[in-house]
Amino acid sequence: MVLLGNDEFLTELSKLFQKARASGSVTMTIKRYDGRTKPEPRDGTPVVKNPEFKCLVRAQSRSKKLSTVIEQQDVEKFTTAYSNLLKTSVNGLKRLKKPKKKAMAAQ
């Protein structure tokens, strides 16, 4: 998995969306990240806690994997850029047909 900077991640993600447009899918995960790269020891020794949490964003399409870590002060900037990217890239979705109310009442 490649750890990129925020701007590099967004440019690579747009390329990933373009490749997946013809066939395939892109899986995104966003989770809280506290900066630890090693597990906490079991013997009870105190671990220095970092009060600043970050966001870990991952994207995967077929065998290509991307990731980035977003600092607290950059979250708003990243989310606006990410939402703009989604608006421009995810335009080929099909509309779901809603079932008729009468058909649902008959069941």
TrEMBL record:
Keywords: Cytoplasm, Ribonucleoprotein, RNA-binding, Signal recognition particle
InterPro entries named among the record's database cross-references: Signal_recog_particle_SRP14 (IPR003210), Signal_recog_particle_SRP9/14 (IPR009018)
Residues passing through the membrane, by range: none
One cellular component term from this protein's GO annotations in UniProt: signal recognition particle, endoplasmic reticulum targeting
Main localization category: cytoplasm
Keyword Cell cycle: no
Subcellular location per the Swiss-Prot or TrEMBL entry: Cytoplasm
GO molecular function: 7S RNA binding; endoplasmic reticulum signal peptide binding
A Pfam family this chain is assigned to: SRP14
GO biological process: one example: SRP-dependent cotranslational protein targeting to membrane
Subunit structure as annotated in this protein's UniProt entry: Heterodimer with SRP9; binds RNA as heterodimer. Component of a signal recognition particle (SRP) complex that consists of a 7SL RNA molecule of 300 nucleotides and six protein subunits: SRP72, SRP68, SRP54, SRP19, SRP14 and SRP9.
Free-text function comment from the UniProt entry: Component of the signal recognition particle (SRP) complex, a ribonucleoprotein complex that mediates the cotranslational targeting of secretory and membrane proteins to the endoplasmic reticulum (ER). SRP9 together with SRP14 and the Alu portion of the SRP RNA, constitutes the elongation arrest domain of SRP. The complex of SRP9 and SRP14 is required for SRP RNA binding.
Family: Belongs to the SRP14 family.
Annotated PANTHER family: SIGNAL RECOGNITION PARTICLE 14 KD PROTEIN
Protein name per the record: Signal recognition particle 14 kDa protein
Source taxonomy: Eukaryota, Metazoa, Ecdysozoa, Arthropoda, Hexapoda
